[in-house]
Every structure is written in C-alpha cells, then in structure tokens.
Amino acid sequence: SADAGDATLVAVVVGAVPEATALRLKVATDLRAAGIAARADLSRRKLAQQYESAAKARAPFVVGAGAELADGNVQLKDLDAGSQQLVALADLARKLVSGDRSHRHGGGDL
C-alpha cells in the first residue's frame, strides 16, 4: 500500500495551534534528516484528534510542538506507556532513537 512506510513510523508531530503547520513540518523534517521515521500532522483538527490519528497510525511517540517551542522544547509523549516529558529539541532525535529501540525490545536496529 501507499502507506507502507507507516509500518515503521516512530513519531507524529502534532500541535495545539492548527495554523502552525510550518513549525510542525520543520520539526518532522529535522527528525527525518536525523534518520527517524517521522511525519507532521498538517491537518487543522483539534489536538485530541491529532493524537487519535497518531495512535491509529501506530506511532509509538507523539511530539507536541506548541508554546514550548519558543524555549526550544517540545512535549514527547510515549503512547504505549502513557507518559509525557518536556524534551529539548536538540535532544529529541536521540531520545526517539533510544525510545524506539526499547519499544522494539532491542530487535531490529534502525
């Protein structure tokens, strides 16, 4: 299928401000440049619906790009664990790589 790439999707970037699609796209693009299978939710839906969509796509992580971005931070939510933490944008790729490895129980190195 055209969505075959979604099988290995690691993170979806969402945002509370529907108009801030360019910000979400930039975060997702930076993650992809770091070798992480990420995509931005560019819809103008409510945040809860963006989270739902990420869960349906079976993404283990959701990156919340909101007001925190002004300070260089994002919210990193682990959908499986239900935990959320504030992460510096500079550390995001590293956190996602190590988090994704633990989700895969050490199998299949990226």
Residue share in β-strands: 15-25%
Alpha-carbon Rg, integer: 13 Å
SSE class: alpha/beta
User: Count of DSSP helices?
Assistant: 3
What spatial form do the alpha-carbon principal axes imply?
Answer: globular
* Fraction of residues in H or I helices: 25-40%
Strand order of the largest sheet: 2-1-3-4-5
Can you tell me the residue ranges where pLDDT is under 50 for at least 5 consecutive residues? 1-7
Biggest sheet record = 5 strands, mixed
Secondary-structure element pattern, one letter each: EHEHEEEH
Tell me the distance between the termini.
21 Å
Q: Which oligomeric state applies?
A: single chain
Rounded mean pLDDT score: 87
Could you tell me the number of beta strands? 5
Features:
110 residues; alpha/beta; five-stranded mixed β-sheet; 21% strand; globular
Overview of this structure, please?
With 110 residues, the chain is an alpha/beta fold. It contains three helices and five strands, in the order E-H-E-H-E-E-E-H. The protein has helices at 21-33, 47-56, 89-103; strands at 11-14, 38-40, 61-64, 73-78, 83-88. Strands 2-1-3-4-5 form a five-stranded mixed β-sheet, sandwiched between helices. Strand 3 and strand 4 form a beta hairpin. The protein starts with 10 loop residues before the first strand and ends in a 7-residue tail after the last helix. The model is unreliable at 1-7 (pLDDT under 50).
